[in-house]
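Practice problem: predict the structure.
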Amino acid sequence: MRISILSRSRRIYSTRRLMEAARERGHEVEVVDTLRCYMNIASHRPTIHYRGHQLDPCDAVIPRIGASITFYGTAVLRQFEMMGTFPLNESVAVTRSRDKLRSLQLLSRKGIGMPVTGFCRAAADIGDVIEMVGGAPLVVKLLEGTQGIGVVLCETRKAAESVLEAFMGLNVSIMVQEYIKEAGGADIRCFVVGDKVVAAIKRQAKPGEFRSNLHRGGTASLIKITPEERSTAVRAAKVMGLNVAGVDLLRSNHGPLVMEVNSSPGLEGIETATGKDVAGMIITFMEKNAKKNKTRTRGRG
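Answer:
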């Protein structure tokens, strides 16, 4: 099988591991810098050009698209789909999961548990939104934030009002969520491939921090998840239409709550903590499912 990996660099751990896993199984792999791709958008013969030459057709493409280049990256991925290439994750699913508000609305429609979330635009509505999520303490999130950046814990109502007013003054989109105190600064990253959770880790925030992201100094450890957590993670990935996803859960007094569904989950933390060959599992999934012109948007929205 001929595989293209859309990634800014072959030195990134996840990209490197996917290359190694594919080559170990006898596949031909090419890493393509997403931002160096340019497209001839023609209905009769769509093509992709890269560094001055036209890319040869490949059997499958693995999108490793960073949040900052979602718009351009998904446009390139769509072009691969138009050429009949099988995408590990489809462009519509990646776009859907990157829109935090839209993804939560889709999860809500399917009855999947998540923290109580408020969204507003006018400063006059701040007080009501704070009450809507149960008052302080609460969490304020930038819709465009990644890796814990733009996430603020407001421990008092006054602090929440000040932070919300400041963000609104900057004309950025934000949402407000209830603070799940019982989670204790920890979340669970479930790595979904196909219809299974193939690995799971607990991410614990460092002392004095509530964000458990490994990029923010959090630590990862093995964890045994419950059947309900497993089912919730798989359902959340399916709602997004993702074949491969990192689903972040919080353990609350009323069951598992989905915080986020990541369409390009990193492999380093989960492979290091679990010792599992997650990259190999991804390639195995592609071997079983990659077929020409198989692209289709699953789910609604």
